[in-house]
Amino acid sequence: KGKVAFIAGVADSTGYGWAIAKQLADAGATIIVGTWPPVLKIFQMGLRKGDFEDDSVLTNGGKMEIEKIYPLDAVFDKPEDVPESILTNKRYAGLDGYTISEVAAQVEADYGKIDILVHSLANGPEVTKPLLETSRSGYLAASSASAYSYVSLLQNFAPIMNPGGSALSLTYIASERVIPGYGGGMSSAKSQLESDTRTLAYEAGRKYGIRVNTVSAGPLKSRAASAIGGKGKKKTFIEYAIDYSRANAPMDQDLYSEDVGNAGLYLCSPMARAVTGVTMYVDNGLNCMGMAL
Ligand code: NAI
After folding, report:
1. What is each CA distance from 111 to 74, 143, 158, in whole angstroms?
2. CA of 160 to the centre of ligand 1 (A)
3. Per-residue pLDDT tens for 37-72?
4. Domain spans, the chain
5. What is the ipTM score, two decimals?
6. What confidence score (pLDDT) does residue 198 get?
7. 193 in ligand 1 pocket by Cβ < 6 Å?
8. Which of 3.20.20.80, 1.10.10.200, 3.30.70.141, 3.40.50.720 is the CATH number of 4-223+257-283?
9. For a substitution probing ligand 1, which of 117, 192, 222 has the most ligand atoms within 8 Å of its CB?
10. Which residues of 161-175 are buried (b: 16+ CB within 10 A; e: fewer)?
11. Confidence band, pLDDT 50/70/90 cuts, at residue 292
């Protein structure tokens, strides 16, 4: 029986979540995804119109099929957590069951046990503000959406994962080095995510026999990255980051989402059965540089 992979944080074909889903599909996995309610309709419409066809082609000539899309808001764990402002929000109208525990229960009802869990989501409402100007609520919101969401996903999905299964998230070098412009407490949230990867690897390894890793990815012009800021300047944050990487990384080549997809496939496959608790750089090597020439 083929493996089932749940990828949280897919809403178009430009991001890392899609790229990982695609490589997993290429290797024969069944793909199900969790999508943030505010972008769910646009995503479903895009799929129906065939907007992502070109980005769905597999090596055998077939197409990646997303078997099911679950509305998922990863800042809520249980129905009781959803505030009135969200319940009455137009963008959530007609939807329910989008808290993490409810999605896990639906996935279990639909598929029984799954094998692969991917966390490819982040959100920081004050990302454009320097840390020194970030509010407490902005900082905690970044941490809630971008770091605790991984803890909660594992809490709720590990019990429905087969031993030998694997969890993966995406992080960024701003967790350990200063990246001006990556603000709002997002750098702090990524530090948490990487530290938690180690602790969760130990706890989930011992309790469930599953592996927990994170990929520290180089810059990619995804929808989320385009929101980081720098609008009105000569280059946006992400354009600057991509050019800087190209100019200074050991490998003088473009970084494609597929590069991260392939590393994700490796980490989630039995080839990596002894690899857990790691932060793996997929960044053309930029992380090892100490000085730019
Ligand atoms: P993306 O826009 O494809 O993915 C982010 C997703 O998170 C979106 O689909 C968004 O709807 C979803 N999301 C936001 N808040 C959510 C919530 N409360 N509940 C559920 N989903 C929510 O962009 P990208 O860049 O591919 O991001 C994926 C991961 O990769 C993120 O963790 C990001 O920090 C990380 N990453 C991205 C880099 C880049 O340069 N694009 C570099 C290194 C890491």
Report:
1. 20, 30, 14
2. 24
3. 999 999 999 999 999 999 999 999 999 999 999 999
4. 4-223+257-283
5. 0.99
6. 98
7. no
8. 3.40.50.720
9. 222
10. bbeebbbbbbbbbbb
11. confident
